[in-house]
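Friendly challenge for the regulars: who can give me the structure tokens for this chain first? No prize, just bragging rights.
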Amino acid sequence: MAASIEFASTPNLHSYPWVINAGSISEIPSFQTTWSDLNRLVNRETLPHAEVWPPVPYTIQFTPSDCNTTSGPMNCTEACRNETFLFTPTNLRICSLLAAASVLVRNDNYSFDPTGDSARRVAQDWYVPDLETFDGERVLGNITECISQSCVAASGVGTCSDAVSRVRYVPINATNLSPVVEILSHYCNGLNSITNADMAGPGVVLSYLFQTSLSLLFYVLVNFFKLWPRRIYAWLGCFSASLQNKGRRLQSSLTSSRFTAAAISSLVEFQEVQLYFIGSIQVASLISFDPDNPNTGSSNSNSFGSALLGSAIVSALGINGVYTVLLCQVCLQRSDMHWWYTFVLTSVVFVMAQVIVARDDMLMPSIEALWDKFSRDASVPACADNPSPMTFCGPPRGSVAAWSSGAEGRHVFVSVGTLAYVGLLIDQLSHALHDRTLPQTCKLGSAPEPRLVVHAQSAWPWIRELYWFSIQALLFVCTLLYYAVLLRASPRAGIGDTSQWSFGQLIAVMVWAPTIIKYIYFNLFGMEEGFEERVSKEYTILGRKRINHASDGRVEQRDG
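First reply, four minutes later:
Bragging rights claimed.
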């Protein structure tokens, strides 16, 4: 008893899998999806349920996007016969299935009952041809001819193996359907998925690596020299007062050292540079990706797969790069450096990241914009001047996963980022209002405090420290994960390929050179030497110790 073929329909547009959120592109199938459906139909005996008895029917699913033509209603007979309509993504899927089903039904590999309720309803609504009389061999022959010719006519999209290039010479019949499907499984392997060098070229990716590395480095240095000793020695005071006093002296020595000053000053400069760096990426992302304009986000895409990859990269950089910004801002404010300049810039970058999260589907160009572009750039005469079917290919395996953490990653960013930013905002405002709003009598505690208030005041420092410890731990882990993403994606960027390094790639790397060089300079020659030549001669750079000495009259004021 042969397995049967059934028709089924849905009134809603189908959402096809494209690895990540694909926006409107999810309404069309990738070539891999078309091949997968065809493979299940032709090679059903190799599937896990092949031994089930009675045999599981194969269901051909029809959606409102299938068999669309310019003549009006859905018409599978016209869509599969006319090559102008055949070589669109949705029609290619449904017509290849109908053609293969026709060949297999006439060869008794499958049975089909056209009198069933579902079959009659689908045949009427979609004008499905009779499988017993449908010329499936001709339709499949047109498809293999188009695919073979696309290997030459649209070679800029990708390359084909010899087997794929010669698939048009394989006779179409029930016996050869399985070998043809096997050959087509390798079609998308040769896709040349173009990645915009401005987004993920070797120099740009290396610049992202430098940025993340520097943020982690300065965070560790500032904490090591200034913040961690303070907490360690406070904890040691619980056991020994003398040990705490020794610790305080050592902490004072570390805090006033050249290395601490160099780390904190370099962190401030680095934070300023990376704020503009991440902000420019975000602004470019929001401006350059207009789903209704074929000359913006899709201008560097040669396939739906490369467009998806570009969208994933932009989203990852515009969102995950904010982790390093928040981590450094937390470090600065915990070091009592409440500079409104960096805080306002941090706020702008954080808000734009939230906008990118909210408009994630808008970073994907529309189907129409991409189709128009591919029709101009990759048309194939054998495909009725439609784009090469290789433009329907999804991104190479693992390429999108190397950048995108999916919806879960966006949810983590919204949660962790919001928790961190709210804490930074409260800390910045409380510092600005400190010693300005309370009357002097309140500050001196002239009236006895209620016991509950006293307990709350004693517990508050511990709660605050626990909060900041948790936030910093989360941001540090998220930054490390982002760093791992960059390391995983760097081989695909061709960092070691000298032919990929253009002027723009070199310039992208050099943006961090001033920060690195000045950090080394500060460590070698000190902060006063490092800053004195950078300010007007009307001012003098003095360390805190020299200022204290000057107040005692031991240092003379220096003119200009």
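Residues 319 and 353 are 5 Å apart (CA to CA). The chain has 22 helices and five strands. Your move, everyone else.
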